Amino acid sequence: MEQQQEKPTAKISVRDLTMAYGSFVVMKDLNFDIQEKDIFIIMGGSGCGKSTLLRHLIGLREPATGNVFYEGENFTAIAPDDREKFIRRFGVMYQSGALWSSMTLAENIAMPLEEHTKLPARTIQEIVSYKLALVGLSGYEDYYPSQVSGGMNKRAGIARAMALDPDILFLDEPGAGLDPLSSRRLDDLILRLRDSLGSTVVIVTHELASIFAVANNSIFLDTATRTQGAVGNPTELRDHSDNPAVRRFLRRGEEETPLSAP
Amino acid sequence: MGQSESTPPTISWKRDTQGVVMEISGLWRKGGPAPEVTGEGDGEMPKRYETENLEGFDSTLPAFLLSHLRKDEQKEPPSLEGMPDDLRGLMELALEIPERSDARTVDEKAGFLAKTGKGTLAVWGNIRSLTEFIGTSVLSLGRFLTGRARFRFRDFWVVVQQCGVEALPIVSLISFLIGMILAFVGNVQLANFGASIFVADLVGIAMVREMGVVMTSIIMSGRTGAAFAANIGSMKANEEIDALKTFGFDPFDFLVLPRMLALVIMMPLLTIYSNLMGILGGMLVGAMADIPPVLYWHQTVGAISLTTASLGVLKSFVFGAAIAISGCYQGMRSGNSSAAVGEATTRAVVASITAVIVLDSAFAAIFTVLNI
Q1: What is the pTM of this model?
Q2: ipTM here
């Protein structure tokens, strides 16, 4: 059956994906590709299923129908035990940071390194300090997640997601709750990571400034139609999308110039 | 304000050539009287509003209007003509995004049969998921024994400390008092026959066979079972368990296994300790009833056989596993909110105490049949 379809070649390909909680369909008929080294934004109004889509991509939820492919390999169809080799290549930052509360920030970042590499303890310490420095948290190694602010938790979560230099980085609302300067630093960080390590980055966000600053590709989830509103470069979508909902979203609902009005 | 002469809020419906007109007047305040409605709109939307006599309003007026304008499914946005600007602004904002028709929860008026069926399915589902959980625990234990389970030994020692050393004060207190109570009650009866010395036998056997292990289990259900559920439940609410999964850690090995091992190891030790404390409590009461402690001790040692003593300890392994499984099971299936974590904790305590008592009855039946 699957052979009849052409094998997708992109880094991540989503085909005919329907997401549902029980009988409640969140989004249906999603089809898009994420290319290597893309910075790909999942955007849409609140409650439209952005985070749910992310959870489908990383295998925490099973699609109601449809498939997710990684470099042509069907991620949805393989057994959960075999998914581990894919998951090793992911770095995921959750909405709240989701740091393990019984460990310090340093231990949080060290744990994946201790588990999946054979690095000596000293090297691990160095990597931990370096990753914390990248997100502007040098000196907070021995703090527990409950002792630092929500924004710091979030940044430490990003540091942990980057711990293993992942091939694909998934960030769930990284900019929400950060002050403008930290948010800006984060945008720079994402761009640098892509350029220096060649990571593919998938970001769930609705921070327009960040979207235009970093993204080269995006999907807009439309709450009204419960499917994708548009796929493409956000700047082009803002100026030339056929879908008025997408244009309105990317302009904060402000009036369009008469030229591009339908 | 100080207006004692304020007019009560009123709505009156009128009809003119263009359609229905709603006249809003009076002072609309939260503390004020309920609005009076005169006339009928006949189900039509007002075409126009008259608000000359409207003296002032807070949220009560827009709330009243919204509930009225939303009463029927209407395609066209209702006319707001004639409203003062401040009121119109609020109404426009409230009416801008249409009500999502499928978002409201529908109260299902299920019949008796449907309810029974749903209830049965829920019970069946619970049994299935609990069995699955116990199965996964056993698999996880197997991985541990073959050295393939991954968790942090530091976490294990922290749990050992929490459910071992830190539980000693409460276990001491309760066991000592239980021993005393048993001795008091026994002494009142036995003294009638001049057989006070057999208080030592009574307290010793009761503690070692039943009371020590059951009381310890109940204390640990409330203390540790609840802590397991709350701890794992809040980790779940905070997406920490998802984070474990995506970093390639098995949440089961990582969270459930160390807790289960710790409790199964610590419960027998606590039980032995509790037995001792109970006997000490009995000894104190015995001393008050003029039984010398040395004699009391010899009498106790003579009364307890090794078989009797090991029964309680044997049970404590099983009870420890039951408490750990109840706590972790409820934590792992808790919802993603703080309220859900609270519910999971309650369920964990109820389930583990029930499990302990039911298992104890089963043991009693088995031991009776085996004549031990």
Answers
A1: 0.80
A2: 0.84
